[in-house]
Amino acid sequence: MLDNKVAIVTGASSGIGRAIAKKMIEAGATVIGVARSEDKLQSVKEWLGENFHYKVADVSEYERALQVVREVYEEFGRIDILVNNAGITQDTLLARMDKEKWQKVIDVNLGGVFNYTKAALTYMMKQRSGVVINISSVVGLYGNAGQANYAASKAGIIGFTKSLAKEVGKRGIRAVAIAPGFIETPMTENIPENLKKLALESIPLGRFGQPDEVANVVVFLASDLASYITSTVIEVHGGLAF
Ligand code: NAP
């Protein structure tokens, strides 16, 4: 489905991003993973083999994003797919949220999407083709107490994606957001058991999602099977009701 495609996946050292890298490689792509931890990226490389490459970078750094994407273009000759997946949480009620917790989450989750999309767009416009897939969250659509910073960043991603789709559709570039629900990854493993139990009760499928179940959707959206899908949000949450 993705034979000979070159994909950049941010946050590919863990959880959903790592699963996206695996599924894309299985579908025939070459993947360049971006994250801060070289150790974790190296173990993904050992796991996935020669079609996985990586760049160590903090997605919130704009100049570094330009450099990383330029290097990928020079080394691989094209950029077909960008998956903006890197993200963090710094949860606390708004009444207790300091400016630092607000800014950090916005800079990484939303700033990172701007940085890598801006960098990759130059090459996609030249190619007159490309797909940008942004990992938002159900929290960006419906909100969640204790996550005003995260929700704002994830809602921002949706507005960004739809605007981008309108700007570049005629250049053969698609932009789509995915809003996962509760997926079992290191990000969610420390959520208190009582909250997990409560969340489970509102999921019709009766279980949390697995990273591969988000990755499958990413592969579909990145492929030509999704050639008429742009400017939309695909929810992957087992029917989670809010
Ligand atoms: P995770 O296991 O904690 O992985 C987060 C990834 O982002 C890691 O690879 C991490 O690598 C990278 N990252 C974090 N900050 C970064 C930075 N400043 N620069 C570069 N890379 C950075 O979390 P996950 O659950 O897989 O989450 C992946 C995405 O899905 C996030 O955007 C998250 O908001 C979204 N999501 C998750 C869920 C869920 O239930 N798990 C639900 C909805 C949406 P390093 O630490 O090595 O930098």
Report on this structure.
- By secondary structure, the chain is an alpha/beta fold.
- The chain has a single domain, classed as Rossmann fold (3-Layer(aba) Sandwich), CATH 3.40.50.
- 47% of the residues lie in helices and 16% in strands.
- The protein contains eight helices and seven strands; from the N terminus they run E-H-E-H-E-H-E-H-E-H-H-E-H-H-E.
- It has a seven-stranded parallel β-sheet with strand order 3-2-1-4-5-6-7, with helices on both faces.
- Helix 1 links the parallel strand 1 (6-10) and strand 2.
- It is globular and about 50 Å long.
- Residues 10-11, 13-17, 35-37, 40, 58-60, 85-88, 108, 135, 137, 180, 182-183, 185-188 line the site of NADP nicotinamide-adenine-dinucleotide phosphate.
In short:
The protein is α/β, with parallel strands linked by helices and 242 residues long. 47% of the residues lie in helices and 16% in strands. It has a single domain (6-234), classed as NAD(P)-binding Rossmann-like Domain (Rossmann fold, 3-Layer(aba) Sandwich), CATH 3.40.50.720.
